[in-house]
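Quick one - first record:
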Amino acid sequence: MNHEFDTIRKHVTSVLGQAGSHGMDHVKRVTRLCGQIGEEEHADMAILIPAALLHDIARPIEKTQGIPHEEEGARIAEQYLRSIHYDENHIPAIAGAIRTHRFRSKELPATLEAKILSDADKLDAMGASGIARTFMRAAEHGGGIDDAIAHFHDKLLKLGELMYTGSGRRIAKTRHAFLIRFLEALDEERRGAG
């Protein structure tokens, strides 16, 4: 199984590259979170880990063609997994998890593995990693500090309430508190205090 995961990881790295707010560094953190939460929640790792590795595979296509990456990513993942002869019984569940992982997904996650992937992806948008990614994202879109702060309020501060698993809620509580402390410190510095 680890050999298959390594094959998938290498493929995803070749598509996404290492850096960026949705690069391979993000995928690795989400995969680690999925491993941690999946173990605690007794998930099927043969579904969860490939879904985590492939969840953003279509980000470059979304960026260039405007196609929602969760929908195109599910299609690409199915095709790719069949090309490497991954267990056919797991492919529909992997694609379903990818299709429903996004904050703005039209469909809600239906399986435990899909719920864990959704939680892990949201958790990587919170805490210290989430803060770093938010400023990277703002810069990638030509924005600055004000754009990043708007993103905190539009999305990040809402994520803690959207967790599906007990493990996700526990981790989110700590990361949400860190976001609040950071925003308070940033606001204080920007007002010239301290």
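second record:
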Amino acid sequence: MSHTAHIRSHRKPRRSASTLAVRAGVAGGVLSTLAVAGASGSANAAEPVTQTLELPTLTADLAAQAAQSADATEQAAANYQLQAERDAAAAKAAKKAEADLAEAKKKAAEAKKKAEEEARREAAARASRTAERTTLSASADTGTGTVLGDSGTGTGAGTGTDTGASTATGSAATIVNFVRAQVGKAYVPGATGPSAYDCSGLVQTAFRQINVSLPRVSQDQSTAGTQVSLSNLQPGDILYWGSAGSAYHVGVYVGGGMFVGAQNSSTGVVERPLSYDPPTGAVRVL
């Protein structure tokens, strides 16, 4: 045996003719296929391949439905906002109405209280007038009052002298004589005689001597008769200070440029010339 007999041969084993033929056929088929594919690829390379993807699209009905849904949502939001605004306005109006009602009740209560006070004052004034009539009646029964001459001088402090002739006659003379007889008596607010007077109390009581009923206060006495000019005064005319209807003081013109009035608590009832305190106007009742 050769000394290399145990070493395997590195040469490839021989293949049979049939195997070679099969492989040649396969190779040929493959080459043919590749040739056809190459030709087909060359042909296809001349014309680009375009592939279209079909994407889902909304139909017209679906689009309309979506638009309607959006409009409905927007309208609902607008309605909610409008309702909220109406609710806020209603709440504000209710609060204002409540405040107005409270204010109206307050004013009504104040008006009621004022009316009650006016009623009490009127009742007190009626009672006072009743007492005055009683006093005046008693005074008339005793013949109170002395007739003074036309140049009679009052006894009050600072009393002026009537230097002119009085032309008072009849009822006017009665009033003039009465007020002159009260000169020197005290001034007391609200008093109507016989020992004290306030300004309107003296005038009212003087006219009662001739059965003429005058209002109690100066404001009303200043409109109780016919307005006359201060340049055309007659004895018995009522003089007033302030505006007609809102006078704050009254007196009686006694003639000769003189008047008698219950002036104040310092002077009492006095007779003074018109120049001492010029009146604003005058009314004639007789």
